[in-house]
Design a protein that fits this description.
With 127 residues, the protein is mainly α. The protein has helices spanning 2-10, 12-46, 70-103, 113-126; strands at residues 57-58, 67-68. Helices cover 72% and strands 3% of the residues. Strand 1 (57-58) and strand 2 (67-68) form a beta hairpin. It is elongated, with a radius of gyration of 30 Å.
Length: 127
């Protein structure tokens, strides 16, 4: 059973998935900072200085009561759109590279080993 587990883990697709998850988690911190520190301030300039994270609808008059924090939802949507855009660009770039590799002409082949040996044999017969 341990041997089967090692075989399962050593498969390329499992390792690729693990790397993707780890990089995705690290990328989330970058996107969060970009949205919170760079994009939201720019957007707030156009909408009158509104900070989305503070937007909410209180469900009661108690300040500590539950609330619909729709500003946080707007931030999450912005983050999602940025991640989706970056993933789109990455996939587009990889597909473009694949197309270039497929379209590249094959390297010209020289004579095969047998052709070279026949040529050597024939030249030895002549000389």
């Amino acid at each position: 059973m341990l041997k089967e587990f090692k075989t399962f883990i050593a498969r390329g697709n499992v390792m690729d998935m693990a790397v993707g998850i780890i990089l995705g988690a690290a990328f989330t911190a970058i996107v969060t900072s970009m949205v919170d520190d760079l994009i939201n301030p720019i957007i707030s300039l156009f909408v009158g200085g509104i900070d989305f994270s503070g937007l909410k609808i209180a469900l009661s008059s108690d300040p500590d009561a539950a609330a619909f924090n729709y500003g946080n939802f707007i931030n999450a949507v912005i983050k999602f759109l940025i991640v989706a855009w970056v993933v789109f660009l990455l996939v587009k770039g990889v597909n473009s590279m694949k197309k270039k590799e497929e379209a590249a002409p094959a390297a010209p082949k020289g004579p095969s080993e047998i052709d070279v040996l026949i040529e050597i044999r024939d030249s030895l017969k002549k000389g």
